[in-house]
Write a structure and sequence with these properties.
13 helices; mainly alpha
Length: 298
């Protein structure tokens, strides 16, 4: 009975995390008056403040101090801090510049890149379903390049940076909140330096436009940290295959939001998305079958 309760709790936490990640696009769309770089700086700064409060409440400062003594772990977190800041920056820029649909494509591609990373970095073997899924994604990108003449660099940059970030974070032993806190702390001086420069050169949006904008900028930290903590708590309680299926909630919502805002979606785009979605269905169905077989034999 306890296991069933734990599973339901994990399901609620994980679904909530993906829903927040899906609707956060609408949140950032409310901040079009704020320059993207300033928005990213505030998102990072207020996330750091909230995480500091959470770490104080959970009494995890000892983990933070020990991490700073571990050179190898710290070097990895320095690299992941650059990756996550780059990912956030491109994502915010894409939202504010009418590329929500392409950014959602990146997060649809992400699971397939995770599989590819496993092959390249861990010498894992591709299953037949994984080979088909990755091939369909590659064909989709080639079709986009040939018929539209543009490379989906936003989607692939978001997918690649997040896949590498996820892989590196899985190779180190540190909690989600503690890890993100250190990553943002590493970037604190550049963030403060940027805000100081921006204030002198152009003037900050915070405290000058409206109280509504100020509140939203502070809440940017909340909508960044909270889903991460929900996901971390939820994913531990449910099967990995379930997490794999639920992860499509966020990009699906982003895709619908892009359509709502009237972003262009051509027949070629439909073909590209259709091929990738087909690949994901094949990959997900195969993973589900494998996990059921593994559960049955264990």
């Amino acid at each position: 009975m306890q296991n069933d309760s734990e599973y339901k709790t994990g399901l609620i936490y994980t679904i909530s995390a993906f829903i927040i990640w899906g609707v956060v696009t609408l949140f950032f769309k409310q901040l079009t008056e704020v320059p993207p770089l300033e928005l990213i700086a505030h998102r990072s700064l207020w996330s750091l403040v909230l995480l500091a409060l959470i770490i104080s409440y959970t009494k995890k400062w000892s983990v933070i101090f020990e991490t700073f003594k571990n050179r190898k772990l710290l070097l990895t977190l320095i690299f992941t801090s650059v990756l996550i800041m780059g990912n956030w920056s491109l994502y915010i820029w894409a939202i504010l510049n009418g590329h929500i649909i392409e950014s959602s494509l990146g997060y649809f591609i992400n699971p397939l890149l995770n599989v590819l990373l496993g092959v390249l970095m861990l010498n894992e073997r591709l299953t037949r379903a994984q080979t088909v899924a990755i091939s369909l994604a590659a064909i989709a990108i080639v079709i986009r390049l040939i018929f539209v003449g543009t490379f989906p660099w936003i989607a692939l940059s978001l997918a690649t940076s997040f896949a590498i970030y996820g892989y590196l974070r899985k190779t180190i032993k540190i909690g989600a909140a503690e890890g993100l806190f250190i990553e943002l702390f590493i970037m604190l001086l550049p963030i403060i330096g940027f805000l100081f420069y921006w204030h002198n050169a152009y003037g900050l949006s915070f405290g000058t436009i409206s109280l509504r904008i100020d509140v939203l900028l502070v809440l940017a930290g909340v909508v960044t940290a909270v889903p991460l903590l929900l996901f971390s708590a939820g994913a531990r309680r449910i099967r990995l295959s379930t997490v794999g299926l639920l992860q499509y909630i966020a990009p699906s919502m982003q895709f619908c939001i892009g359509l709502y805002y009237g972003e262009e979606f051509t027949q070629i785009d439909a073909l590209v998305f259709g091929l990738i979605w087909t690949g994901l269905v094949i990959y997900s169905w195969s993973s589900l079958k494998q996990n059921r077989k593994a559960a049955a034999t264990s």
